[in-house]
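Objective 1.3, modelling of assemblies. Example input:
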Amino acid sequence: MARHLNTIPGRLVVMLLLIHALLMPPLFYVISNTVERTMKDIFIDHVRNIAQIFADRIERLEPDASEQSISEFLDSAILSGQGRYAAIDIDGRTVASSLMSAEETGLFREDFAFGEHGDDVYYLSLPVTAHGEAAVLKLGYDESPIHEEVAALQLTLTYVLAAYLLLTLLVAGLVSVTVVSPLRWLQKASRAISSGDVDRELKPDSGLAEIVALSEDLETMRRNLVGINERLMNEIAEREQAEAERRHLEDQVHHHQRLRSLGTLAGGVAHEFNNVLQPMVLYLELALEDMPADSLTAENLRRVQELANRAKGLSRQILTFSRHDSDPGFVRQSLAPIAEEAVTMIRALLPATVDLRADIDPASSAVNCAPEQIQQVLVNLCNNAYQAMSDGGGHIAVSLRDAEVSEAMAGRYPHLDAARYVLLEVRDTGRGMDPATQERIFEPFFTTQEVGKGTGLGLSVVHGIVERHGGEIVVESEPGKGTRFSVYLPSIGHDEQSR
Amino acid sequence: MAKILIVDDEEHVRAALKQVLERAGYEVAVAATGNEGLELMRREGADLVITDVIMPGIDGITTARKIREKFRDTRIIVISGGGKAAPEPYEPDAISTRSYLASASSAGADRTLTKPFDRDEILRVVRSLLDEQ
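Predicted structure (tokens):
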């Protein structure tokens, strides 16, 4: 209830009802009272005049008029219209109209008491002279038409006031609708805006100056808010992107640092390892020289020699990863012939179930590279791709082309600049890797293969070689979909020697 | 017969190389440190020096440079075991075999070799250097 009272229509109705409740009863009272009094005065004047005429006529009656004729005369007073009572007191006797019963004759009340007896009769008495004697003419006139008229007037007045009340309520309703409906509209629109529909224009269909001014101000506010909101959203998006890029770069830097630390550690181990291997290799050769070549000892020593060679190979790979290997011999050359040769070799090594496709741009730019190491990169990446094929079959795609590294990409990788690169890609349709695996694949001896299958050095070697070439290797992989390794090597344009 | 001086802190490397070279007919002297090697050079001299890079005391690079300063005709081979943990502060490119061997060349080494090399490799290098003399 209080909720309804606190609305504009509620307030208006209550206010109007209050005003009418205060004003209407006195108004009603004053009007009906005035009318009643006026009508009463007119009635009384009229009745007295008539009564006076009767009195005059009584006095003009024959002095010897019989009681019968007096009574008939009185009858005429009643029959003349409004008469209800007619009697005359003469000399202690009462002669009444024959039209009244004896009972009615005794009803005469005091004079001049309009509407006070409850019998709707106005009584008056006039002193007259009849039969030469002093007498009192007593007349009664019907008041009821007056009462009826007043009642009818009061009813009309009530109707008029009620109609007036209804009319004002109707006007209040119309005013409310005119004011409230644009306000309601504004409210709905504001709610829509606050729940996200910020593009809704605040322009209610109203001609009211106040409403128009209010909605114009609100609309200005909305436009400003929308502008601020857009700016904030853009700023947040920009910051988020910058933050994501910064985090990515940090991750990459961290990743490289970790691999470098591992490289330093592994390089130190390999160094010590080589110092152990060196005398072993020489002693083995000396010992073999002293043995008959066909002796079992010589045979065993050759086996040890094979093992030493394997150890030497491992050590070399570790040093390649840690970039502590000896100078592999850099030349300025296009990678195309190197890649072609490597692909031919790899194709021969892979089973027929693996479909190896190569898309090598013969016009790709030259890079400063160690050809054998680039071949090693391709061999190791393709081997890795093959190992990722769970059922031993699938597709490997090798591609070589020039590529421009954008500012955005350069911002994400510490070893890339916004410049021209030669891009060597190896894609496979193998198992793919989850992010945790991707994080670690370049670590030496990290392998997802069963124990004894692969050394876990292949990708470490690739990483070492790419770093040594001043390049970057980017891994994109999704479990179940496959993996793409993108090797970026700085382009040095088209070298004449490479043609 | 040409005389060769081996400088290496690894006893087994020294001993094995010594045997290989002696068996090939060279006269061989050994030293465990750079200073010892320099002392031997001053005292006895040598036609060719094979020195390791990383050694306690003065390293192989310094040893090679000092020998080159005094003995212009002595051939020098610098050998290295490959990577070695870099000193702090961490500078990944500052210390590596590559830079060791590169600085060895600028310090006057005639050839550089990475361990482990086999007998034929070292003998071929030794012979070719001594033949140039």
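Strands of chain B lie at 3-7, 27-31, 48-52, 75-80, 111-114.
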